[in-house]
Write a structure and sequence with these properties.
Length: 437
């Protein structure tokens, strides 16, 4: 009896192996059959992969190489890339084996980083520059959620399609919208553009976590790094923001606000990291009723109560909410949301002095006027930059020269902190030989 069992097992094993062999042969022959056609795009895709995930710009520039040998060489490629990042013509044998691996090792698909922005009025160029800065340094794939006024949709689409060769991001365009429940009443109370972000947890119901940024944000280090703060939340934290001010003597909320606000100087909502699953689940303490309210139920009474006392709209409402629920906020340091206030009267963001600026926030329109030339120089350098590796590598030198022309201003005096982290980000991403990933 046992002998029979052994023979059966042996046969099953042999059968399985020959099946695998047959499949891999089939895959190879299919590939060879398809291989004759478009040599160039395949080569571009292959070298994109070999380059470790940077844009096809690199591949498109180099001469076309024979497709198949390259495509099938690097086993680890399929293994580490989610399926959607693979060019359609890269598959066959390697990916067949890889699929078996993926199944048996239960590899998680690469987590996407969700980034949301609300663009109204003249904010197209600024928003595109923000998105570019996110793409240039980031490692994990990005999913953009762009809420824009209808007349901007076509331009966004054109511009983003022209970047689609990068394959490291995907996007969805939305009109400015209110949650379907009570839409009419929301519309009566809330200014659509200004309050859109408050509704993101209710509109993007399928999204677990989200980084919301204003259009006037520039990433000087990978989005991955701020995204990783989500994992540092303790069990009660649901969102993360930076303080509105470091220096109470020039703080706005502590001097002028006619409503409650978080902490000593309030928080700034220009860079807001959210675990929206938790926001949707939480019951919030408040000063309107003794019962705790859900996100979707707290906004309207809050606005009705404070309408006449708030100055900065949605940011004020967030401050009121986290005043009553301080255990739910993760406060990250000012270098993650560096604004002119941190240097126009002298430097007061100590973390940025030490480690450089991580995320630049050019509020008050400083990218577009001459009041803070240091901020404007960073913006223009990134706006002018293409995705070519050469361009990105030389970004640092030309920007440094521009910044040196701004030392007559308070912010320009400490221009080195504007490029400290940027230099490191470029070095990490573009100057090292591509690592096996
Ligand atoms: C990109 O986003 C669209 C939604 O706009 C979605 O349908 C599509 O599946 C996404 N593609 C990938 C590869 O993630
Ligand atoms: C967000 O919170 C939920 C519920 O606590 C958790 O399951 C999820 O992993 C969190 N998301 C991230 C990105 O940490
Ligand atoms: C609004 O501001 C006024 C004047 O400072 C104050 O008396 C009033 O209590 C405030 N309203 C609320 C709801 O806090
Ligand atoms: C999480 O951190 C916040 C802020 O530091 C704190 O107020 C809260 O008590 C912490 N929650 C837990 C469960 O430790
Ligand atoms: C960016 O380009 C504009 C015109 O295209 C030019 O005037 C400006 O000097 C450039 N700025 C930088 C920092 O390269």
């Amino acid at each position: 009896m046992r002998r029979y069992l052994r023979i059966v097992l042996l046969c099953a094993a042999c059968g399985f192996c020959s099946l695998l062999y047959a499949f891999s042969q089939l895959a190879v022959s299919l590939e060879e059959g398809a291989g004759g056609g478009g040599g160039k795009p395949q080569a571009a895709a292959a070298s994109w992969l070999a380059g470790g995930g940077r844009g096809a710009a690199r591949g498109a520039g180099s001469a076309a190489r024979p497709g198949r040998s390259h495509r099938c060489k690097d086993f680890s490629l399929c293994y580490w890339n989610p399926y959607w990042m693979l060019p359609s013509d890269v598959c066959g044998m390697n990916c067949f084996w890889e699929a078996a691996f993926r199944y048996s090792l239960k590899i998680q698909p690469v987590e996407k980083m969700h980034l949301a922005v609300v663009a109204c009025g003249e904010r197209l160029e600024e928003t595109m520059t923000m998105l570019k800065s996110a793409i240039i340094f980031s490692i994990k794939p990005l999913q953009f959620h762009i809420f824009a006024e209808d007349q901007l949709h076509d331009s966004f689409k054109d511009r983003l399609e022209s970047w689609s060769f990068l394959r490291t991001f995907n996007y969805t365009l939305y009109p400015i919208t209110f949650p379907s429940e009570n839409a009419a009443e929301w519309k009566k109370l809330f200014k659509p553009c200004a309050s859109q972000r408050l509704f993101l947890p209710l509109i993007l119901k399928e999204v677990d976590s989200l980084l919301y940024v204003d259009t006037d944000i520039l990433f000087l280090r990978p989005v991955d790094d701020i995204w990783s703060l989500l994992k540092k939340f303790n069990s009660t934290q649901i969102a993360a923001m930076a303080p509105e001010h470091e220096e109470p003597r020039i703080g706005w909320y502590n001097r002028f606000a006619r409503h409650p606000y978080y902490g000593k100087t309030g928080v700034n909502s220009g860079v807001m990291l959210m675990n929206m699953t938790r926001i949707r689940r939480k019951y919030f303490k408040n000063d309107m009723t003794t019962v705790q309210l859900r996100w979707g139920d707290i906004l309207m009474p809050l606005l009705k109560k404070y309408k006449l006392n708030i100055t900065w709209g949605d940011q004020d409402l967030l401050n009121i909410i986290f005043f009553h629920n301080p255990e739910s906020l993760f406060v990250f340091p000012c270098q993650w949301n560096y604004r002119p206030d941190h240097c126009i009267y002298g430097s007061n963001c100590q973390e940025a002095e030490e480690e450089g600026i991580f995320i630049l926030h050019g509020n008050r329109g400083v990218y577009h006027d001459d009041k803070q030339p240091a901020f404007r120089a960073v913006y223009e350098a990134l706006r002018n930059c293409s995705f070519e590796d050469e361009d990105i590598r030389s970004l640092f030198k030309s920007l440094e020269l521009e910044l040196q022309k701004t030392v007559h201003t308070y912010c320009g005096k400490i221009y080195k902190i504007f490029i400290k982290q940027l230099a490191k980000s470029i070095e990490d991403r573009y100057n090292r030989p591509p690592k096996e990933r």
